[in-house]
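ok so I'm stuck.
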Amino acid sequence: MKWFPMVVGAALACNPTPAIDDLGLPTLDPVAAGFNPDSLRSLTAFLQAKAREHAFPGAVLLIGRSSGVVYLSTVGVYGDDDRRPVTARTIYDMASLTKVVGLTTASYLLLNEGAIALDDPVSHYLPDFSGGERDRVTIRHLLTHTSGLPPWIPLWRETPDRHAAFQRIDEEPLENPPGTHYTYSDLGAILMGRVVERVVSQTLDQFLYYRVFRPLGMTDTRFNPPDSLKPRIAPTEFDAVYRGRLIRGEVHDENAYHLGGVSGHAGLFSTAPDLARFAMWLLSAWRGTLDSTANPFLPADFVRTVTARQPGPEGSTRAIGWDTPDPEGGSSAGHFLSPRSFGHTGFTGTSIWMDPERDLYIILLTNRVHPTRENRALLAIRGQVADRVVQALKDPSLDHRDP
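replied:
not stuck anymore, here's the structure
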């Protein structure tokens, strides 16, 4: 995939105009890319209104295709305690986007290389996770949230350290036989992160840095960001229960913090431009336009298979790692993204959706948990944003096509 910078076609927020040219990203004229510029601009007004309604302190919205960025909008501020305007380079706690941008991508590389297989038992890699029904839990079960593990336990409160936390998960009884129920599970993602680390003999953050983030130029994407980046990091919640301070520059998720800030389920920090680089890479791979010399490289047939909805128990909409749109339109994907779309959300207020049939990605980053996680207004807004993006296409039906 070759990138050719073009003239930016969108100037678009009440915050200082996002300088897409300065971020090293290819850019596309919205009209030439098939969008109605007025409809795109209305997205900024929509987000500004939601910020005024306190759905979130600030937000970054980035829309594009596999060949470049079409629209970038920044609204609001870091928070009531920090009134600086959000910019395109604001760093957000990704929360569960860690599961897809980080853990799932690492798993895809290992699956494609034959280092692991979807139907391998987890106990093959983690012998301590064995005995009874655990012996039937596979890599596929972990990546589709059908392992039978419970969704969450307060490891930060019930175990003294990382080693004891892992032991607790290894011994945790399954709630259901493997493969019979869909239960979104942080514990399964933590286990899968350990599988990756065992196979590559590196920590998850090291593997992702050398195999994914550095090759793709994702320079602001990392676990445990250094203090030097703190001024650019949007704060999350004031933690009155565990840490007794405002959380900024350290992972919001209590279990991930307890595990040292690096885990398969949470811990990653990133920016919208970095996620755009990632989305352009993965969309290009899905569409078969990724150069065979690209680093990292994944073949189109493989990517199309693993990002498609998998057969599974009732209620599951999962692909391998990723989620897919709810057929009833009740998810963060809205009502109009194609069935081949895949995406995910993060508890802190982050989301990414890709529609490969339309060659479209939508990145929305907020810190909606600031100052408290009780603010749930964003849950409805994500789907509304996705719907408005598709409606901004000049002809959504004609644009809905395979490569």
